[in-house]
Structures are given as C-alpha cells and as structure tokens.
Design goal:
The chain is mostly helical and about 400 residues long. The protein is about 85% helix and about 0% strand. It starts with 8 loop residues before the first helix and ends with a helix. The N terminus and C terminus are likely disordered.
C-alpha cells in the first residue's frame, strides 16, 4: 500500500477507535453466554451440556458464514459492510432476548454469528489498509482491543445483569448497543476506504492451497484448547471456589482485564518478534497454566492469579496469528483474516463440544487433559505449517 493511499493520521485514529468499539459489541454478543450459562440453563430447565449449544451453534455459524459473507460482499463499500454486519448483530441479540425456548435462542445466535463473522474480518482489513506495513501489528491490536475489552467490561456486566435481572436483560443491552454502533460506523468509517475486492473464486483458490490451510489450522487447536475450560468456567468457579454471582462477575472482570492487557502488548510483540516464535512460547506457557485452572489451587487469591495469567497468555495469540497470515499473503489479507476468524470459531465449537463430552469425568480432570492434548496438536501444526511455508512459494501470490 503506497503512502498516498493511506488515510490521514487523525481520520485513521478515529476510524480505528470506531472499529474497536464495534469489536467490543461483537465480543459481548459472542461470549456473554459464558457468564450467563448457569442462569440460562436453570431458567430453561436444561442440562448444562445442552446449554453449550448456544456457544457451539454460534461458532459453527460464524465459521461457515464468515468467509462466505466476506467473499459475497467483496465488492461492497467497507462502510456498508461493517455497518450492515452490526445491524445483524443487533437483530440476533434482540431475538435471543425474546426467544421463548432453547431452540429459538439457537436460531437467534446463528443470526448474531453471521453479523460478527462479517464484521470482524472486514474491520481488521480496513485497519490494515489505513497504516503502513510496519504498523500493521499495531493497527490490528488496536482493533482487537475492543474485542478483549468485552471480556473485561462487557461480559462481567452481562453476568451481573443475568444474575440480578435475568439473562434476557443482558441480550437486550447488547442489541441496543449494536444499533447505536451501526449508526456510528456509518458516520465515521470513510466512504472511500481503500480495499481489494474479493470473490468466491478467490476464496476457493485459497482453500485449495495446502500450506495456507495448515497455517490456518493452528488457530483451531489453540483456541479449542482454551474453550475446553472456558465453556464451563462459571461452573468451575461455583464448584471449586464456591463463588456466586458477584464473585464470578469480579473474577470475569479480572480475566477480561488481562485479555485487554494482552491486546495492548501483542501489537508491540508482533512488530518486534517473529509471530511464530510468540505463538510457540504461548503454547508452552498455556500447557502449564490451563490444567491449574481445574486442578490447581482452590485458594481464592492463587486461583485468581492463575486465571489472570491464563487470560494474558491465551489472548496474546490473536494479533500474532493474524500478522503471520497477512505476511504470508498480503494481497489476500481480507479473506485470510476471515478464514482465520472461521478457524477461531471452529476452535470454539471444537473446544465447547469436547468440553461437553469430558465434563462428566470427575473433578474436571477430563477438561484438563483435553486442553493439553489440543495444545500439543497446536504446536505440531505450527511447526509443520511454518516448514511448509518456507519450502513452498505461494501460487496465489504469484497470481495476485
């Protein structure tokens, strides 16, 4: 991208801020169910394993819809895409609040997922288009900060609302925020934002490039490992630490606060060190930390410290993996980011489904074993993917 096509500094900062706020809303819409899982399952009188479907269905819909919607809307102005995607998030969230049954909520979550799956990759691509090459990691981390802020601010508030006023109130709040955010994005994102049009044929070309698929698969196993535990975090806090609504909200706020810290520092780390090296170190750290969440100390202070470090390491991967993919093939950044988002939600679906199967093993031991198995697979995929990338030229780049 030439300097002439870059947005003026002030306009770029404002746009990045708006995109980050949009990711804040998307993040709450996606993960608010984690803090509401216990209240939803009790209210609907369903088994906790059935409640995991609210996360699994969202993840599967996001994974399938994100690259397809990005490709289909590939020639639309980016302002129209991000604002329209946010309206889908609003419709899905409001429908979820009004749904009379689990089945209705699952359908509403699919609509919400389509909105989030369209928004986040488009927002990341806009961010990359606004800055020079050497600032891409910084720009991606700025946009991702909103997503992690949802963990530290939005989800604890959602959990508190659920325990205090009922889970419907949390979804109503998310829907209202999404409506306001859609209007703000339409006003702030420049109408002439530069972008490279995409198509379904280009998506198919990427999907038939083996080393790109292997590079993307890292996200599935890394994120899946985290969600073998995160899916039932509120149940773990209730059972192992004896926490109730207020205590859980505080712990979720600490967890989310560290996710926010991870987003702040990950841009600098990615622009300073090789992304693959960062990802390898994070895998090794999580292999130690994650079993401690379910098998470690029950002392409140020590357990909270473990959760905080787990969050810091877990959320530090996102910018590094995005930057790794963009460096492989900058011309197809938007589709690669959409596919990476798909892999993220395939990982969420994998982790939440695995968690539902392993939950009956006593003392949450199954969750601990499942997490480390997936992390081991993530390391293997990372090493294999990097070797394939080094050995082969990308045929897509040759055609771009």
């Amino acid at each position: 991208m030439s300097e002439a096509t870059l947005a003026p500094a002030a306009e770029a900062r404002l746009t990045l801020f708006a995109l980050s706020l949009g990711n804040f809303v998307v993040g709450i819409a996606a993960f608010v169910v984690l803090g509401l899982m216990s209240t939803i399952t009790r209210s609907l009188a369903i088994d906790p394993s059935a409640g995991a479907n609210l996360l699994t269905y969202y993840a599967v819909a996001y994974a399938i819809g994100s690259p397809l919607l990005i490709a289909i809307t590939g020639r639309w102005p980016r302002r129209m895409v991000v604002a329209g995607a946010m309206l889908l998030v609003a419709v899905g969230s409001l429908a979820c609040a009004l749904a009379p049954s689990l089945g209705g909520m699952e359908l509403a979550r699919i609509v919400t997922a389509f909105g989030g799956g369209l928004y986040s990759p488009a927002a990341s691509a806009v961010a990359v288009s606004l800055v020079p090459l050497e600032r891409r990691g910084w720009a991606l981390s700025r946009v991702f900060i909103g997503f992690t802020a949802a963990q530290g601010i939005g989800n604890p508030i959602g959990a508190w609302l659920g325990y205090t006023f009922g889970w419907q109130s949390a979804f109503l709040l998310v829907g209202a925020l999404a409506v306001v955010m859609a209007l703000a994005l339409w006003r702030i994102v420049p109408a002439a934002t530069p972008f490279r049009p995409t198509s379904l044929s280009e998506l198919a070309r990427i999907l038939t490039t083996p080393h790109m698929l292997v590079a993307l698969l890292f996200t599935v196993f890394y994120v899946g490992a985290g969600y073998t535990t995160l899916t039932y975090l509120t149940l773990i806090l209730e059972t192992r630490l004896g926490m109730s609504g207020t205590g859980i909200s505080i712990v979720l706020a600490i967890y989310g606060g560290m996710a926010f810290v991870a987003a702040v520092i990950s841009g600098w780390l990615t622009d300073t060190f090789r992304p693959s090296r960062i990802l390898l170190v994070l895998c090794l750290l999580l292999a130690i930390l994650m079993p401690l969440v379910t098998q470690g100390p029950t002392d409140l202070v020590l357990a909270t410290l473990v959760l905080a470090m787990w969050s810091l390491c877990s959320w530090s991967h996102f910018t590094a993996q995005q930057s790794r993919l963009v460096r492989i093939n900058p011309a197809y950044a938007q589709l690669l980011l959409a596919l990476n988002a798909s892999m993220l939600y395939i990982g969420i679906a994998t982790g939440s489904l695995l968690a539902s199967k392993l939950l009956p093993i006593p003392e949450f031991m199954g969750l601990a074993i499942g997490a480390d198995v997936l992390l081991a697979l993530a390391v293997i995929i990372l090493v294999i993917g990097d070797r394939m990338i080094r050995r082969r030229r990308d045929p897509i780049s040759d055609q771009a």
